[in-house]
Amino acid sequence: MPISVRHVCSLLAVAAIPALSACESTLDVPNNALTWGFIQTGALATATAGTYVTSPNGQFFRGTLTSVPDSRVKPDTCVELLISQQGPLQVTFLDAGPSITAQLGTRVDTIPRVSSSSRTAYELAAPKSYQPGDSIVVRVPGAAGGFPAAEIRSKTAEAFTLDSLLIRPAPAATQLRWTPATDNNSSMIAEFRYASTGGTNFNQLIRCAFVDDGADSVRFSVIQPWAGANAGSRSLTVTRLRTNIIPIVDGFMEVISTFAIPTPRAP
To answer: In the beta sheet, which residues pair with residue 114?
Structure first.
C-alpha cells in the first residue's frame, strides 16, 4: 500500500510516549486501519562528557494514523503552534513476541515485552551505552494473530554541536548553525518554545524543519514573538532526526532516532 508525501505538522503520540515528528517532515498516510511498528531511540547524556546511553523501545499496534515522521522530507519552513497535551491514540496493541532484539553497533540487547491494562510495549529496564551514529538492527519474532515477524535496519542520529543563536534586530533573519550531517538522510528540527504571557509556562511553539546542511535562518517576522520573550520565558531545542520506514504485511514499520541539544540526562 503506497504512502504519499504531504507537508504537514504533527506530534505523533503513541500511548503517551511521544515520538518527534517534524513540522513539514512527515509522511501523509492512508486514512484507514493499518498495522504499525515503531522503534524509538534517542540519546541521553551521562555524567561523563561526550558519552551517551539510549533505551530503544518498541510499540506495535493496529490503528489509523494521519502522518508519521520522515527525515527525508526537509522543506525548510516554520510554523507556529499552540502547545497542548495530546492523549493516547485509540489503537489496538499487538503482541510481537515475548521480546525483540536491538543491535547497536556490535552489541545485541534483548528488549522484553511489558504489558499493562492499557498498552503493550517493549522496553529496557535501564538505558545502554552507545555511540550516536551507530547502526541499529531490530529483529521482531512476531506472534500468531499479532505483529508479523520483521527486521529493520537504520542509522541512529549522530551527535552534533550547535553554535550560539545569532538574533539580529529587525528586519534581519535569526541565524542558526550546527555540525552538518554526513549524508542526506537526516533533517534538523528547531523548536522555539515561549510563554506568551511571561513566566515559565510555555504555551506557544515555533517549529522549523531544516535541511541538515549545517546552517539555516528564521525570518524576523516568524521569530519575533520568541525573541521578544525574556530569557526565562523561552527555550530552544534543536534535534537531529533520522528515520527509516519499511513495508510489512498490511502496514509499515519504522525506526525513529533522535539526538537533541540540550541533550536529556540519563536517569
So the answer is: 121
As a dihedral over the C-alpha atoms of residue 57, residue 159, residue 130, residue 263, rounded to 10 degrees, the angle is -60
CA distance linking residue 146 with residue 252, whole number of Å: 14
Q: How many residues does the chain have?
A: 267
pTM for the full predicted model: 0.88
Helix, strand, coil fractions of the chain, as percent rounded to 5: 5, 50, 45
What SS3 class is residue 220?
Answer: helix
Q: Is the peptide bond before 141 cis (omega within 30 degrees of 0)?
A: no
**Which position has the grid cell 502547545?**
83
- Grid coordinates belonging to 117: 491494562
> In this predicted model, what pLDDT tens digit does every residue of 75-129 receive, in sequence order?
688 888 888 755 666 789 999 999 999 999 899 999 999 988 888 999 999 999 9
SS3 73: coil
Question: Where do we find the cell 494521519?
Answer: 66
Cell of 143: 506472534
